[in-house]
Specification:
This protein is 50% helix and 15% strand. Residues 16-22 and 83-89 have low confidence and may be disordered. It starts with a helix and ends in a 7-residue tail after the last strand. It is α+β, with helices and mostly antiparallel strands. The chain is flat, with a radius of gyration of 25 Å. The protein has helices spanning 2-14, 38-52, 58-77, 91-108, 114-123, 142-160, 165-172, 194-200, 235-260; strands spanning 27-31, 34-37, 126-135, 183-188, 213-215, 218-228, 264-266. The chain has two domains: 2-109 and 241-270, no CATH class; 125-232, Chitinase A, domain 3 (Roll), CATH 3.10.50. A four-stranded antiparallel β-sheet has the order 4-3-6-5, sandwiched between helices. It has a three-stranded antiparallel β-sheet with strand order 2-1-7.
Length: 273
């Protein structure tokens, strides 16, 4: 599970003994009296980036460190550090032990009914679409933007004039789906950038074409090619999605309750992106 793996990763980071220099002693966060300094945060974050080659947003990373500190403190309160099954007296082992008892066991007990599946599907319908992408840097100046728009409008005119969309996509699209004629297969609203989904999900029937859509990737022309109903939906995939949603709710509820009785001070302004 993602949360479980993340806590394991953070445990390695927290196991380092980090001695902050006087100039690095400003406090980024304090959790029930336990301080996290600028030096400690930056060192732990850099270790994470170097190890996993991924730059998590620093505010999200801070939230995860706070959650780990909270859960380890709660584990100590409950006496888990005295449990004979504990091999090492570390924050991560304490946190994992607590989560195993309070969170992960509840994951195993999750049941997903047909009603749950239908309710989720109604909130997250699936459509099938193809698109033609004209790449453009989000920071492009006005002349380049107008040049890209003009090129896209010319192809949109061809598509509306009856030319084969698949062939147009193969010839003009600059996205990875070009080789497949722009086919994106079925997708949900959340799986695309908001600007794209907002337009795509307003198309009414197969064959409908959008106006030009501007996203951070450039200009898109979208063609709706299918709308999936519940009967033809991939039930196994839906079940996994509903289960993941329920797991997330359990996980967030657990930490929300911990935070209700915790004293947490955060100085996000000390974090430099």
């Amino acid at each position: 599970m993602i949360q479980k793996v993340l806590f394991f990763i953070l445990s390695i980071i927290l196991s380092f003994s980090l001695q902050a220099k006087p100039k690095d002693t400003e406090i980024v966060a304090e959790i029930n009296g336990q301080a996290l300094t600028v030096k400690q945060f930056n060192d732990r974050y850099q270790w994470y980036v170097d190890r996993f080659k991924f730059k998590m947003p620093k505010k999200d990373f801070l939230k995860n460190l706070i959650d780990l500190e909270l859960s380890s403190q709660e584990a100590v309160k409950r006496g888990f550090d005295k449990d004979s099954k504990m091999l090492y007296d570390t924050k991560i082992l304490l946190s994992q032990h607590l989560l195993e008892k309070e969170v992960y066991q509840k994951f195993e007990a999750i049941k997903v009914s047909d009603r749950d599946l239908k309710k989720y599907f109604e909130k997250s319908p699936e459509i099938k679409a193809s698109h033609i992408l004209f790449k453009l840097d989000p920071k492009a100046d006005k002349p380049k933007e107008e040049e890209g728009r003009k090129k896209a409008e010319e192809i949109l005119k061809k598509a509306r004039g009856g030319e084969d969309f698949t062939e147009l996509a193969k010839k003009y699209s600059e996205g990875p789906s070009a080789k497949n004629g722009g086919d994106l297969d079925y997708f949900t609203r959340d799986s695309m950038v908001p600007e794209f989904s907002e337009v795509a999900f307003k198309l009414k029937k197969a064959g409908d074409l959008s106006d030009l859509v501007r996203t951070k990737y450039g200009f898109h022309i979208i063609k709706l090619t299918g709308i999936r109903d519940f009967k033809s939906a991939d039930k196994r995939r839906l079940q996994n999605q509903v289960k993941s949603q329920k797991q997330k709710e359990i996980y967030e509820s657990f930490f929300s309750n911990l935070k209700k009785n915790a004293k947490i001070t955060i100085h996000e302004n000390l974090i430099e992106d």
